[in-house]
């Protein structure tokens, strides 16, 4: 079953500070067996935060990469530009990676942490329906994280930040602590074409 690795890095501010290290990460990921696709970009709210949604054919494929010398080489490079520990966990999105979302101009990632033991995935997914049909929304998907710390992650594609702002005020949740960020997956970096 496909799985998405969500990786958030805090890095030194300025593209020139992290460009080569991120390029090395992306090139390395493309070569890994079981890697489907990586979408990445800075948070619109704070460009010192880089968001990566890394698609894997399975959790085993990611584990194989993490146990490899390639992973060690990537981490050695990234540590030179990181300003804090990375945040990483895995999400089973349903549906998995619709192009209308991951190819949108901006992707809003809504995270609900500290879910109660009675959190219902269907109800949480239903709460995301408020975005469907809103002006500028290109699509919605969501899922629960794997592992012991349960998180609900919703992903919404947008044509603009303004469209996201207008619709987000209508979103309300009754379970967990919400955080949200918008990511520019089309962030232009010279020399990154095709990565």
From TrEMBL:
It comes from the Eukaryota. Transmembrane segments: none annotated. It holds the Pfam family ABM. InterPro entries: ABM_dom, Dimeric_a/b-barrel. Residues 3-90 form the ABM domain. This is ABM domain-containing protein. It comes from Lachnellula suecica.
């Amino acid at each position: 079953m496909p799985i998405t690795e969500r990786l958030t890095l805090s890095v030194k501010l300025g593209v020139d500070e992290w460009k080569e290290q991120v390029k090395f990460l992306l090139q390395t990921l493309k070569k890994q067996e079981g890697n489907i696709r990586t979408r990445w970009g800075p948070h619109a709210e704070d460009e010192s935060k880089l968001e990566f949604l890394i698609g894997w054919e399975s959790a085993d494929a990611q584990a194989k990469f993490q146990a490899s010398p390639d992973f060690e080489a990537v981490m050695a490079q990234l540590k030179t530009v990181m300003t804090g520990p990375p945040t990483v966990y895995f999400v089973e999105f349903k549906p998995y990676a619709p192009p209308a979302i991951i190819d949108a101009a901006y992707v809003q990632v809504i995270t609900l942490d500290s879910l109660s033991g009675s959190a219902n995935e269907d109800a949480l997914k239903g709460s995301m329906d408020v975005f469907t049909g809103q002006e500028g929304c290109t699509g919605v998907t969501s899922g629960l994280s794997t592992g012991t710390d349960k998180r609900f992650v919703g992903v919404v594609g947008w044509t603009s930040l303004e469209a996201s702002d207008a619709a987000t005020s209508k979103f309300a949740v009754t379970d967990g602590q919400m955080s949200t960020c918008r990511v520019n997956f089309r962030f232009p970096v010279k020399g990154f074409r095709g990565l």
